[in-house]
Design brief:
Strand content of chain A: under 5%
Structural class of chain B: mainly alpha
Structural class of chain A: mainly alpha
Number of helices of chain A: 7
Distance between the termini of chain B: 44 Å
Helix content of chain A: 55-70%
CATH superfamily of the largest domain in chain A: RNA polymerase sigma factor, region 2, helix turn helix motif
Helix content of chain B: 40-55%
Number of domains of chain A: 2
CATH topology of the largest domain in chain A: Rna Polymerase Sigma Factor, Chain: A
Distance between the termini of chain A: 35 Å
CATH class of the largest domain in chain A: Mainly Alpha
Shape of chain A: globular
Largest sheet of chain A: none
Largest interface: A-B, 77 and 63 residues
Number of strands of chain A: 0
Order of helices and strands of chain B: HHHHHHHHHEEHHH
Oligomer: heterodimer
Order of helices and strands of chain A: HHHHHHH
Chain lengths: ~190, ~280
């Protein structure tokens, strides 16, 4: 399901001469709507923040090429996440450096996260909960993390299935499994 | 209570929560929830867990997110620098006009014809699950450019796989008798990837189904990466890599990953090792 803000009024088939400017317009529009979600997503997969920014740029340049070539425009959000996901995993594999753990990229810059808890006991409890949840997320299989993070970014189950090239049933199973694990950690 | 009525499945609960069920099923789910306390509680637990995780995820990530305006400027600069539509054809034509490369192109054609002749003599891969994931050996035997190992491993060739031009894509669909391909159903893909010296030729391209098959484009990407790695680290010679991927890429995948299943298949546990899913 594409939310209203993403329902672009793209013509069914872009005319050759207009394809360039139409595609650019669509790319900037989608960038406005999806830059933060995609950046968060690839960072959550364990990229350093400068790498994550670069992946986002590459993804939207690939989108430009995709649209200029008149390729399918159905489920562009799923397409964008798919490209970003693949580029991120490739980058992580090829960077040669030890990969960051999931959700670690931005933590390097702001180690002390603003904590809204008012008193020391609550702060302590909040810190423990955070460590528990991080441990659960980092113990998830790669694909479960992908499904969970995309869902947290508001993608529908069908969009996620298309983005990861797996069945709808597999996405639902994966998200359910992760939610169960998270719920157990919350209860601990 | 409706004792005979089975409880809702997790999938229905999740899809209902994300408004992805068709109207009729949504109504069924609603009426079941109205009468079943157990399923209502499960639904509430799932939504609560998702909401809590979403809050946690955003709290972890949002604080460090760099502002978007600089990224938009960067993107705009890259868009301006990117080639306008049509430049690809011109570049290819210019490229083919160079005398040495014209020869290269005709060698590529000859290699294609040779491989076509080979293809006639062998049986295509069988099994229903393969029927759409592998190209027809008659239409897409695989065509290579006369490149050396050093050529395909140089930084320049590794950079980007050239997009397949529109006109060529249409020819590929026509060759396979696909009229009006459904949007999103296929990607016109190289059989022998340019990373391994594959040519941008009708006989090296086929409409590869995007999703819904186990042996899909992403699985093939993983194979291409693996072969490229093996070739560039000197563990496999380029001609063998080209031949194996052209002859039956699924068999090649099984051989080079030593597995009978795509490592990223739904029944596996999602592979860090495949690199592309």
């Amino acid at each position: 399901m594409v939310p209203a803000e993403l329902a672009l009024a793209l013509p069914r088939s872009l005319e050759r001469q207009d394809a360039g400017s139409e595609a650019e317009r669509a790319v900037t529009q989608l960038f406005g709507a999806l830059r933060d979600p995609v950046l968060r997503y690839v960072t959550a997969l364990g990229l350093r923040s400068e790498e994550a920014e670069e992946i986002v740029q590459e993804t939207f340049i690939a989108l430009l090429r995709h649209l200029r070539l008149g390729r399918p425009q159905t489920n562009l959000r799923g397409w964008i996440f798919r490209v970003a996901h693949n580029l991120a995993l490739k980058r992580r594999q090829r960077s040669g450096r030890a990969p960051l753990r999931s959700l670690e990229g931005l933590a390097l810059e702001g180690e002390a996260r603003p904590d809204p808890a008012p008193n020391p006991e609550e702060q302590l409890a909040g810190g423990q909960r955070r460590r528990r949840l991080l441990a659960v997320v980092r113990a998830l299989p790669e694909r479960d993390r992908g499904c969970l993070f995309m869902r947290a970014e508001g993608l529908g189950y069908r969009e996620i299935a298309a983005a990861l090239g797996i069945s709808l049933g597999a996405v639902c199973l994966s998200v359910k499994r992760s939610l169960d694990r998270l719920a157990r950690a919350e209860g601990a | 209570m409706h004792p005979q009525r089975p409880h809702l499945e997790d999938q229905d609960l999740l899809l209902a929560a994300s408004a992805e069920l068709p109207a009729a099923e949504t109504a069924e789910v609603r009426s079941h929830l109205a009468s079943c306390e157990g399923c209502r509680a499960r639904m509430a637990d799932l939504e609560h867990a998702m909401g809590e995780f979403r809050r946690f995820y955003r709290q972890e990530l949002d604080a460090g997110l760099p502002p978007a305006d600089r990224s938009l400027e960067r993107l705009q600069a890259r868009i301006d620098a990117a080639e306008p539509p049509g430049a690809w054809h011109q570049r290819t034509r210019r490229w083919l006009r160079q005398p040495g490369l014209a020869l290269a192109a005709s060698v590529a054609l000859a290699v294609g014809v040779f491989q076509l002749a080979q293809a006639r003599g062998r049986r295509g891969p069988s099994g229903a699950e393969h029927s759409v994931a592998v190209p027809s050996p008659r239409l897409t035997p695989g065509v290579t450019l006369p490149l050396t190992q050093r050529d395909v491993c140089s930084a320049a060739t590794q950079a980007q796989v050239p997009a397949v031009p529109d006109a060529l894509q249409r020819q590929v669909f026509a060759a396979y008798g696909i009229k009006d391909p459904a949007p999103g159903a296929y990607e016109v893909d190289y059989l022998i990837t340019p990373q391994l010296g594959g040519a941008s030729s009708l006989r090296n391209l086929w409409p590869e189904p995007y999703f819904d098959t186990r042996w899909n484009a992403r699985v093939k990407d993983a194979l291409e990466d693996r072969l490229h790695q093996l070739v560039c680290s000197g563990q496999l010679d380029l001609a063998t890599a080209q031949r194996d991927i052209a002859r039956d890429w699924i068999a090649a995948y099984k051989k080079y990953f030593d597995t009978d299943q795509p490592l990223a298949a739904p029944e596996g546990d999602g592979g860090e090792n495949t690199g592309s899913v």
